[in-house]
Design brief:
Layout (H helix, E strand, L loop, with lengths): L13 H23 L5 H49 L9
Length: 99
């Protein structure tokens, strides 16, 4: 268990988060520059830019859905674990029942 009381793996480090954000920014900048400097008509650039925008927004939506499903699974698992812990804490193996 971590300090916050969850049994999840360690949270994302600041360095990893920064690396992911910088990588995303660089990739987006490179593709945008490639579209801008591509020797084609404006409508082709517009089509590619809309495709890139759709791809980026879809990636964020997919990441959110994956995160939400992970959180949902984690919450159900923690509730089940709490129930099991309560049953085990209340169980007395040496207690005899009167007949």
């Amino acid at each position: 268990m971590t300090k916050s009381g969850s049994s999840a793996a360690s949270p994302t480090t600041t360095a990893f988060y920064a690396q992911a954000a910088i990588s995303f920014g660089l990739a987006l900048t490179a593709v945008t520059a490639g579209i801008v400097y591509l020797p084609v008509d404006g409508w082709v650039r517009g089509f590619l830019a809309l495709g890139m925008l759709f791809l980026v927004t879809s990636a964020f939506t997919l990441a959110k859905c994956v995160r939400d499903r992970q959180d949902e699974t984690s919450v159900v698992s923690r509730v089940d674990q709490a129930r099991l812990d309560k049953l085990l804490a209340e169980h007395d193996p040496f207690k005899t029942t009167a007949v």
